[in-house]
Amino acid sequence: MTNTALITGASRGLGLALATTLATAGWELVLTARGAADLERVAAELGATAIPGDVTDPAHVERLARAVPELNLLVNNASGLGVTPLPPLSVYPREEFGALLETNVIAPLALIQATLPALRATRGAIVNITSDAATGAYEGWGAYGATKAALEQLSNVLAAEEPDLAVWWVDPGEMNTRMLADAVGADEASGATDPAKVAATLCELVWSRPASGRVSLQ
């Protein structure tokens, strides 16, 4: 029986690297991201299903859930960075913080809620991509880190409430992605870990299926 994965933020970075690794392993993939052209190109290359859209849109979440009547793996990888350059909390715009919470916390929970029946049917797994900013006090990263801390606690409680599922909240460490480049500059980001290496480690996690919990790949 073929395994099925749903990956958000799949058009570049870690989402793309993970989709590529899973496709090579024979998984069926449903991929989503906001950039339709890039997503459809990736899906065509991998033989995957592309459903472009914004994960903060409830109608889009429902479309994704209908596409996976049975689901082995949900990866909540799509994430926003927030205001750049990264401002201190003393001047962080409250409306921008609300939008960041919507993207990084509320949207992943909404997609989990919508796909839980499909995940329960296969005793599947959920990977929520988080950050060391969820636990560390890094200047400028307060708003982003707060959203990731919230996502970690949601994951922690979900693991207790859904013992038949595997729920991992994964800190991948710094990766050479556009998001990191937007935060720290392209030169510094270029020295970070290749997302393909992180994706390979994540797949090993999925294959071995350890107990639910926080996983740091740093």
UniProtKB/TrEMBL annotation:
Its EC number is 1.-.-.-. GO terms for molecular function: oxidoreductase activity. It comes from Nonomuraea guangzhouensis. Signal peptide: none annotated. Keywords: Oxidoreductase. Belongs to the short-chain dehydrogenases/reductases (SDR) family. It is an enzyme of class 1 (oxidoreductase). It holds the Pfam family adh_short. This is SDR family NAD(P)-dependent oxidoreductase.
